[in-house]
Amino acid sequence: MKILLLDSNSLLNRAFYAMPDLTDRNGRHTGAVFGYMNMLINIIDKYQPTHAVAVFDREAPVFRKSIYEGYKAQRKPMPPELAEQLEPLKGILRAMGIPVAEMDGFEADDIIGSISRQWEYPAFIVTGDRDSLQLLSERVSVLLTKKGVSEVEDYTPARLAEDGLTPSQVIDLKSLMGDSSDNIPGVPGVGEKTAKDLLSKYSTLDGVYEHIDEIKGKLKEKLEAGKESAYMSYELATIKCDLTLPVRLEEAGLTIPFPAAAREKLLELGLVKIADRLPVGAKAERAESEIVTLENEDALQEFIARIRAAGEMSIALDGGITLALSGGEGAVIGEGRTLFDEGLEYTRVLEALRGVLEDEGVKKTVYDKKALMRALSGHGICLKGADDDAMLLAWLDDANRTYKSLSEACLAFGIDDSCPACAIFRLKEIAQEGVRAKGMYDIYRNMEMPLIPVLYAMEEAGFCVDKRGLEELNAEFERILSDLTARIHELCGVTFNVNSPRQLAEVLFVKLGLKSGKKNKTGLSTNVEVLGELEDKHPVIPLILRYREIAKLRSTYVYGMLPLVDETGRLHTLFKQNATSTGRLSSSEPNLQNIPVRKAEGALIRKLFTASPGNVLVTADYSQIELRLMAHFSEDPAMCAAFNNGEDIHTATAAKVFHVPEEMVTPEMRRHAKAVNFGIIYGISAFGLAKDLGIPRRRAEEFMSGYFATYPRVKEYMNEAIAAAKERGYVQTLFGRRREVPELTSSNPAQRGFGERVALNMPLQGTASDMIKLAMIKVFERLTKGGFKSKLIMQVHDELIVDALPEEAEKVAALLKECMEGVIKLKVELKVSVGKGENWLEAK
What keywords is this UniProt entry annotated with (predicted)? Predict the structure, then answer.
C-alpha cells in the first residue's frame, strides 16, 4: 500500500504561474487545472500509489491567526482567474474517485500531517511548500516541486540530512530565521546561515536558549530580545498531526483505469490532451461497429450507393481515404497509395468517387475545403456540393484558437478522429452549435463560405514576378550585407557572426561595454527594442539595425521567394482564413502581407511583382478605412465632418491640435498627427507615442490631450467600448463577427492592458476585414459573370489587385471602386483609391 497526499492549493498555485493562460471555448480559465492534472498523471505513472487524497485549504480563518494576527497577512488574495479553477478541479478529482479533504480552521498541511501520521502506511506528499519536510520519516517522503510543477525532488530523511537538518529541525529552523512567505517573524536579524549554525551546535530551539550564555555579542542580544517571537514562530511553524480526519482510508483507494466520467469532466474544459492521457475504463465514443473497412471495389461501390441514397457525405484524405455519412457511419479505405490487397490504387479509388464528388446534389461536409479542392483537382476532379467546412466553423466558434490540422481541432473539441471523415461531421455539429449561439452563422454562411472559391481562384492564378530582377536584387542585397558586415567588424574591432545573437551580445555588452538590462533565455537580449534604445550610444548600432532589416527582406522576400516562383514565372501564395482572431486574411509561401510599404527596399520588391505579359495591374485600396470606422463608431462630429468634407484627416487633426490654420501645418505637425490618429486605434499610450515619435513623454501626453479635446467623442467611445467588452466578455464587428476577450478580467495588468487594446482595435480591424471579404466576393462574381478575362489575383489588408487586360482596365477600376465603396453604408463617406500600372509599385 502506498498513499499519495496532494497539497492541492500549493500545486494549483504553482501550476497557475507556470502555465500559459489557457481558456476553454467558453472563456473559462483552465491553465492551472491543466498543469495540476499533467503533474498528477505523471506522479501516478511513476510512483504507482494505491490510495490518494487531494487536500485543499478553505477560506475560513485558521487557528494560527489567533496565535499571531500577522500570520500570512502579506499574502494577496487568490487571483480570480485561479479561484474559478478550484471547483472544476475538485469535480475532476471526485470523478476520478480521489476524495477531496478540507477543514475549517486548519490548513492543508495540518490535514496532510494528520493523515501521514495516523494512517500507518508508506505515504508520499506532493507539495511546493518546504514546511512539509518536517513530516519526513522512514515511511513518509516528500516530493517537492521545482520549475513550476514539471519536476519534483524526492526528499527523504537522508536527503534532508544532506542539507544539515533532521525533520524536526525544520520547525526549529523556521522559529529562528522566520519565513517571509508565511509572515512568520522568527528572531529578527537571524538569517538561514546563522540559524543552521546554531542548530548544528545546539540541535533544537530549546537547546539554543538552554545555552544562551555561551553565545556572545550581537547574536546573543538578538536571541534574547526575540525569544518570545521565536517560540511563537515555533508554534506557527508546527504542522498539526492529531486532527480528526475528514476522510477514511477505505474512501481513498485508487481504481485504475479511472471512471469515464473523469475524462468527460476534462473534455468539458477542453483539456483533451490530458483526457487522452488519463487511463479510463470506457470512452463515450462512437461504437467500432459503425466504422467499416472497405476491403475491395465491390464494398466501395456499395458504400458509394449508400452515399447517393443519403444525399450527403464527408471525405478526408488524411493518410488514407475515409468516408462518412452524417449518422456516424464511416468507412476506412486504407493508407498509402495501394489501398486494397489486389492493388487497387489511390487514383482508382478517387476515380470511383468522382461521380459523387462532382455531384452538386450530394452535399458534403469537409475540413479545409480549399485544400481539398486543390488535392482533388490534381486528379482532375472538381469538387461540388461542399456546402460546409468544419475548419471554418471551429475557428469561428473560438477565433482565439488556431488549429493546424483536423486532428488538432478534434483534440480541442474532444472528438475521436480514428475515422477522420466521421470526425468532420461531429466537429461540424459541435462547432456549428457554438457559432449559432454566438450569432455568427450569417458570417459563416454568407461571408466565409462564399470566399473559399474566390481565394482558390486567386491562388491558382498566381502573381507574376520578374525572376531575373529578383535574382539581381538578391545579389545587390548580398553586396550590401557584405559591406555592412565589414563596417560592423571594423567598428567593433573583432570578427564575429553578426547573425548570432549570442556573439553579438558578447561584442556589444562585454567588449564594447554598452549597457543593457534586458535578458532572455540565452543571455542578454539584442532584439530590435534593445538596439533601438542603444542607437545613439555607439555608431555600430545603426549599422546592425540596417543589417538585420536587409537580411530579413532578403531571406523572406528575395532569396526566400526564388524557389517559390513556378515555371510560368508566378508566385502562388496560400491564403489562410482561420489564422487571425480579427478575421483578417493572412498568407504564406510567401507572406505577401508584410512587404514594407514605405521603405525604399520594399518599393524595389513591389516593383518586381508585375502584370501578366501584355496586361496591367489595377489596384484599389480603402483610404484610411480604420480611421473612418472610428468616426462611424464614435460618431464624433468633428471627425465625421472632416471625412465627409473630403479633408486630409491628418492635416485637419494637426491644425486643430496645434491651433493653426490648415495651410500652416508643417510636415512634422502632420506626421505627429498621423501617429496619434493611427496610434489611438491600437490603444497607444503616451509612453508608446513618445517612443514612436522620439519626443518627451510630457509632449506626447500634450498631443493626446489635444487630440481628445479635438475629438471628445472618440475618448468617450473608447471608454464605453472597454466597459461594454468587460460586461459582455466579447467585442464584435459591424457585421457581427465576435472575439472573446477573457484578458479583460485578468488580474495581470499587462494582460488587462492587452484586452483593452483588443476591445478598441478588433471592432475596427475586424469590420475592415469583413468589408474587404464581402468586396472580394462581389468583385469575383462580377468579373466571372460579366465575362471579363481580367482576374482578381491578390488581397493585402485593405487593397485588392486585379491582373487586367488593357482594354478592360477602366471597367475593372470602376467595378472595384463600386463594389468596395458599396459594401456598407457608414456615417462617413467611404473612399477607394484606384491605380494602374505595369507593376505593383507603379499601380500603387
Answer: DNA damage, DNA repair, DNA replication, DNA-binding, DNA-directed DNA polymerase, Exonuclease, Hydrolase, Nuclease, Nucleotidyltransferase, Transferase
